[in-house]
Amino acid sequence: MKSMILALLIATISFNSYAQVKTEKDMKQEIKKMEELIQEYLGMVKTYPEKPAYYLQVNKTGCRLLVRVNDIPVGYHFVEDEGESMLYPINDLLLGSGKHTVSIQVYPRTGETEVTKDAGVNIKVVHYKEKLVGMPETLVELDTPTDIGMKKIPLYTDSISFNATLPFNHKKILAETTDLRTIPDLEEKVLAHYNMVRQMMIDGNCYEYRKMRLASTWVLTEMNYLGKEALEKTYIDSDYLFRFLCNPIDWIAEPIQNYEIVVCGNGKLVYLTYIIHSGFISGYQNRYG
């Protein structure tokens, strides 16, 4: 299997006029193509009579936080200094049944050099027998120590493990992938891919972008038990198409700069992310694409 490069879209949004204009006719044609693409997605996925779902209930305060599942960052970084709380789905990070690991990196607040006594993180791995139906079961729980401020450290790390039972098994996706740490000129290749995606945004090629990623992202649809209605809401009805179909007065995709290349997933995945605030990194990745 080809080496997988995550298409992390770090092009930021600002006010300027360099985006491709889309007429109403263009938008209707684009939506029609997206509807056809959704049918392709649905034709590739399996459906299951039972839909068990796993989530992370993340609560944190007085710090900044990065969370990984099986060495893969979740698609949200808790970069705010104040408290944050989120129930985050992780089925598509598990890939199948078995033992899994959740790890955390706790950073100081902006402007601070050490994790203080105000820092607190609580993470629960919760399991729904049916996706978001009924009351979930808490499988394991992680808490930062009450004396974390006494440690006088710039970074605190910890992890917990749990077992999951899922109806699908896509572990071969990563198992059969080349270790990216062995690839020459990896950063150059990743930058080329990111710049290609950036140009697709500027040109308004939403369908082409999604079509390009179909072969590797259909599995996310299956692992999250998404049907036609959910896909239409995500790709057509929501504001997702904004970046591709907006008027040119709204935004510009800025050059990719001030980034860090991150290899994760035990060497099988890579993405670029912005560097902000004393080396703390932040970004969102489209996994397996």
Structure description:
The protein folds into 2 domains: 13-48 and 172-282, no CATH class; 53-164, no CATH class. 25% of the residues are buried. A 4-stranded antiparallel sheet has the order 5-2-7-8, with no helix packed on it. Strands 4-3-6-9 form a 4-stranded antiparallel sheet, with no helix packed on it. Strands 11-12-13 form a 3-stranded antiparallel sheet. The chain has 289 residues and is of the alpha+beta class. Helix 1 (24-44) packs parallel to helix 5 (206-223) and helix 1 (24-44) packs antiparallel against helix 6 (228-237). A hairpin with a 2-residue loop joins strand 3 and strand 4. It is built from 7 helices and 13 strands. Mean pLDDT is 84; it is low at 1-19 and 278-289. 27% of the residues lie in helices and 27% in strands.
